[in-house]
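My current task is to audit a protein record that another person submitted. My question to you is simply how this chain folds and whether the tokens agree. This is what I was given:
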Amino acid sequence: MNNPITSWDNDYARLARAASQLRTTSPNSPSFHSNQQRQGQASSIQTGLNRLASELNALESNLSLSPAEVSRRRTILEGLQSQISSEGVAASAGGGRGESSTAAALRQQDDMIDELAVGVGRLKNQTHLIHQEATSHVRLLEEMDTNVDLANQGLEEETRRAMRLKEEKSVW
């Protein structure tokens, strides 16, 4: 089941992971990419975020999401976009002078909370689908119960009719 909302959630989570990996790559680590590679990654993530923003506009115009949900998604998109744009500035500035460890930890926590929010939204949608499925099963079971009762009444009536015929036609 790949609906546009789920697809948007998955794309956002993928971009958030890529942005997190870009942020956690320090200039001093052995796996450090060149400044040009970092800029390319930031640009690629920014392109993905722009695509998500346009998809969000489409979901809003189709009334697929509530205004509150659209606002929430815009906020997390803007947060990720600001992180990427500041990461692009930091990568181009070079110099190895990073942010304080407290600020980095807070940013990482914010990112994790944003990712959790996406997951919770997905769970909410799945819960609604399960509720709808359970409701339809209850309705079907109630209909089956009614049909079984009707069939039982019909059998009892036919049994009484057969007994009357037996008594009327009995030779003994």
Summary: The longest helix spans residues 101-169. The radius of gyration is 31 Å.
